[in-house]
Specification:
196 residues, alpha+beta, Immunoglobulin-like, three-stranded antiparallel beta sheet, 3 helices
């Protein structure tokens, strides 16, 4: 035997205790006052989020760094190959040019002299010869006199022109140079061809 069906309880009349008014029920309705409000688009504080951001791929970062480093080093090497080392680097260039074929310099230390003139001016004198030992006429480049202190450090340098621009085979020319306003520490000189 089946039990008799239970009748649904009728809704309490509006205004009775425990009943909700139509205004109260409008909050639940899909088209109620909250439909399309700012709360629909706001993130929920209960929504699941990962506890931290995903890490970037370290292999990609190291690869990008290596490629960047290689490009910078390649650009620097190309600049040095094309322009040469900058002048401000210590030891970047030789002091003197390479030997000129056919020309021989002779500036002995015994012909170098530092003196103080009676008027108080100090000068440094250097004397020597340039000889063409080749078989052809040779162009004579500029000379460079480098003044050194007692510890062989460069304290000054001066460029001088040779007395003759060209020398015939076997011909020699004497160079006598007096430098004034030299540093007090200058005690010796090196003489060579001026580097271009």
């Amino acid at each position: 035997m089946s039990a008799p069906p239970v009748a649904a309880e009728p809704a309490p009349p509006v205004g009775a205790p425990g009943s909700r008014s139509a205004e109260d029920r409008s909050w639940d309705a899909p088209g109620g006052d909250f439909a399309g409000s700012e709360f629909d688009n706001a993130p929920s504080s209960f929504e699941h989020e990962p506890p931290f951001r995903a890490r970037r791929n370290p292999a990609k970062l190291w690869t990008a760094a290596a490629v960047s480093f290689a490009l910078v080093v390649g650009a620097l090497m190309a600049a040095v190959w094309w322009f040469g080392l900058p002048d401000w680097l210590p030891g970047s260039r030789p002091t003197f040019a390479k030997a000129v074929p056919g020309l021989e310099l002779s500036f002995p230390a015994t012909k170098q002299d530092r003196r103080t003139l009676p008027n108080g001016i100090e000068y440094f004198g250097a004397s020597g010869t340039i000889t063409n030992v080749g078989k052809d006429v040779a162009d004579v480049p500029s000379l460079l006199i480098v003044l050194l202190d007692a510890k062989d450090r460069i304290v000054d340098h001066r460029e001088i022109e040779a007395p003759k621009a060209k020398l015939s085979p076997g011909e020699s020319v004497t160079v006598n140079e007096a430098l004034t306003d030299v540093p007090r520490g200058a005690v010796a000189a090196d003489i060579g061809w001026k580097a271009q």
